[in-house]
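Bit of a strange request maybe. I'm writing a small parser for structure token strings and I need a real example to test against, not something I typed by hand. Could someone generate the tokens for this chain?
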Amino acid sequence: MFADQLTQEQRQVVFDLAANLAAADNDISEEEVQYLKDFSDAYGIEYDLDKGDLNIDKALSVLDSKKARVITLQELIKLSYKDGHFGKEEQDKVLLLAQKMGLNNTEFLMRIEAWVRQGFDWVFEGEQMLGEDD
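Reply from user aminoacidic:
Good idea to test on real output. This should exercise your parser:
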């Protein structure tokens, strides 16, 4: 995972933003819950989904490099796809966060989204091939 390249404090921000984003459509799916549990387990982060009072600007200030901001956006988009679609509320929230991070280049955001989508396609294709009978 690219999140391995983040500091522990930055990973906490990714988790907090992801939990906040998952609640954006007022319906946290089972897949989103699993993603958040896996992320918290992988990095020793307390599993707490109550991030409604999160200070977004303070959280984003921890992402002090372009690499950290890109990885964060990638993780947030990945979470958004977990329930099968990247919904309008989630897209708007990710776009707003990207703008606050200074990454408001639409073409660049589309590249990150394509990167995430290709990753899901790659996993799906592999699962299909491994599930085929000889």
